[in-house]
Amino acid sequence: MFAALQLLLELAASWWTIGLLASFAALTYHWTTATFGYWRHRGVPYVRPTVPLFGNIASMALGIEHQARMFGRIYNANTRLRVDFK
Fold first, then answer.
1. CA dihedral over 13, 15, 21, 27, signed as positive or negative
2. 14 is in which domain, residue-wise?
3. What are φ and ψ of residue 52, in 5° steps?
4. What is the pLDDT of residues 9-63, one digit of tens each?
5. How many domains does the chain have?
6. Strand partners of residue 55
């Protein structure tokens, strides 16, 4: 009887832990991606962010891509909006 009760308590504790971790992960994901549609809702052309928390600058933040190349990639991806300085 005591062993069954102990096993039941261990299972309940593990389900609570899994539930809390899953809830924390879901809230963190929502918090980091909630503003990804900011420019879309305002009708401004933009490059859709790809990585939660970092958006489009993940490659630069991780040191994979230089800042100039990153901004050039984002600029070239948006061909609908160009500024002519003539």
1. negative
2. 1-84
3. -60, 145
4. 777 777 777 788 889 999 998 988 888 888 888 887 778 888 887 888 888 888 9
5. 1
6. 51
